[in-house]
Design brief:
alpha/beta, seven-stranded mixed β-sheet
């Protein structure tokens, strides 16, 4: 059974989707054992506590560099035997040391169809604003591995979602979460824990 740590920054809707999937038995060979928040006011902490999951806060504001923040996170993870880190609405960019230590063991969910509307500066509602301004008719979400390039790691799963007339950022954000993020993130986590993801270059194959 693999130990999963989920990193959060805000409301924790993707964390809740993972907890719900776990309770339904949909995350095979894995269990969420730890939740780390980048700020103490993240409602995701309440969701974790309600599910009986251990939590900790490592505030991004308390550290002046990615390197020092990485070290603080690694200290907290020490001796917890974490096999997989899931970034579920985690708004802090991880540094090279942590990414290197957990190479191909960090999964992120991004609210667009990578390589569109991704990279530095594309997070949260900013993604959906850019989607609406572009006039595209289809958007979606991507579960991918994390590497040193923002949103640049190997793609695991994607799901498309329609952009509808009259959408604003809030409506589109909720549709993408409900129809794509909450579905493919638990699936990607389960595939990892089952050992069914093979990485070939910067691509993945599902075994």
């Amino acid at each position: 059974m693999m130990n999963i740590a989920v990193f959060v920054s805000g409301g924790g809707t993707n964390l809740q989707a993972l907890i719900d999937a776990q309770e339904r038995g949909e995350i095979k060979n894995g269990k969420i054992t730890f939740v780390l928040a980048s700020n103490e006011n993240a409602y995701a902490l309440e969701r974790a506590k309600n599910a009986g999951i251990e939590t900790a806060v490592v505030s991004r504001k308390a550290y002046d560099s990615k390197e020092s923040y990485d070290k603080a996170i690694l200290d907290v993870l020490k001796n917890r035997n974490i096999d997989l880190i899931v970034l579920a609405g985690f708004l802090s960019i991880l540094g090279e040391e942590l990414i290197g230590r957990y190479k191909n063991k960090i999964i992120n969910i991004h609210p667009s169809l990578i390589p569109l509307f991704c990279g530095d500066g594309f997070y949260g509602k900013k993604v959906h604003t850019a989607v609406l301004e572009s006039g595209v008719k289809v958007t979606g979400a991507t579960a991918h591995f994390v590497n040193e390039i923002t949103d640049g790691g190997a793609i695991i799963l994607q799901k498309a979602v329609p952009v509808e007339q009259g959408d604003n950022e809030d409506i589109l954000q909720y549709r993408v979460m409900r129809q794509a993020e909450w579905e493919i993130l638990p699936k990607a986590v389960s595939l990892f824990c089952e050992g069914r993801i093979k990485i070939v270059g910067n691509k993945t194959e599902i075994i």
